Amino acid sequence: MTVEVVHWNPRRPVVPGKLGRLVPVRRRVNNFGDLIGPALVEHVLAARGIDPAGGGARRLLTVGSILHLAAPGDVVWGSGVNGKEAYLPPGLELDVRAVRGPITHRLLREAGIAAPRVFGDPALLWSRFWPRESYADGERRAVGFVPNLHDWARHRDDPRTIAPQGDLHTIAGQIARCDLVVATSLHGIVLAESFGIPARLVPPSAEPMHKYHDYYAGTGRDEFRVAASVDEAVEMGGVRPPVWDGDALLAAFPLDLWA
Question: Which of 255, 246, 256, 247 is nearest to 45 (CA)?
Fold first, then answer.
């Protein structure tokens, strides 16, 4: 598409070579949460009969904690600030249509960037285009655990674990067929709540809590309880459902980029 949908998906070496060295084979990380933005944008456009290849040479930032990747003139629809990169340089000119939550909103305003109070991670809209019933075929789980990318290795042997890397719709389907979702992955929580599935957060091992607080506050939950472990999360059950305006978030989608 002519409009670049900015997202994080670098290539990394993955194949061990002889003598303990890495052969020069690099593959995309394909962390599912980082693939949601481009897929969602393409489908929003398709639902309106708009060719994704049209539009001008602009950049759109959407799903993810990617505002540190912003360049002057970028359009923002639902992105957030990553706690590791919470600083935004003064004078950065952005066209902001929506943000993930009030923490990101405050940081933008402090940097002198105008932003409307339209909150919500766009991944919450996923079930509007791919409803839970569309993923009905497949194994059901009473509990699914979706680890953050950095937590995958520690939990891969737990039969409740859903691998966070791979085909986006395969992972979305595994989440959709759960009765309860536990996650250290932010978008494990977001997709579950999009499907109306109870979800509970376990703090990640390597990620700041900044983006989780931003997401929960942006969906009407300034206070929320996390679980210390997957087992405790199962005992606690899900947090109360999100309160948000999906129509307002969808209306803020920058269709004009493709006009």
Answer: 255
What strands, in cross-sheet order, belong to the sheet with 178-183?
A: 141-146, 178-183, 199-201
Are 16 and 84 in contact, with CB atoms under 8 Å apart? no
Percent residues over pLDDT 70 in the chain: 92
> Quick check: 14 pLDDT over 70?
no
| CB contact at 8 A, 181 and 188 | yes
Rounded distance between C-alpha atoms, residue 7 and residue 31, angstroms: 11
Q: Which residues pair with 79 in a beta bridge?
A: 99
Q: What is the 8-class DSSP label of residue 200? A: E
Q: What is the DSSP string of 5-37?
A: EE----EEE--B-GGGPBPS-EEE--BHHHHHH
Tell me whether residue 16 is exposed, middle or buried, using C-beta atoms within 10 angstroms of its C-beta: 0 to 12, 13 to 18, 19 or more.
Answer: exposed
Helices (H) and strands (E) in the chain, counts: 9, 9
Model confidence pLDDT, tens digit, residues 18-72: 445 555 666 777 889 999 999 999 999 999 999 988 877 899 999 999 999 999 9
Angle at 22 (CA atoms; ends 16, 23), nearest 5 degrees: 95
- Candidates 41, 82, 33, 36; CA nearest to 59 is 41
pLDDT in tens, 86-133: 667 777 899 999 999 999 999 999 889 999 999 999 999 999 999 999
Q: Residue 229's Cα: distance from chain center in Å?
A: 22
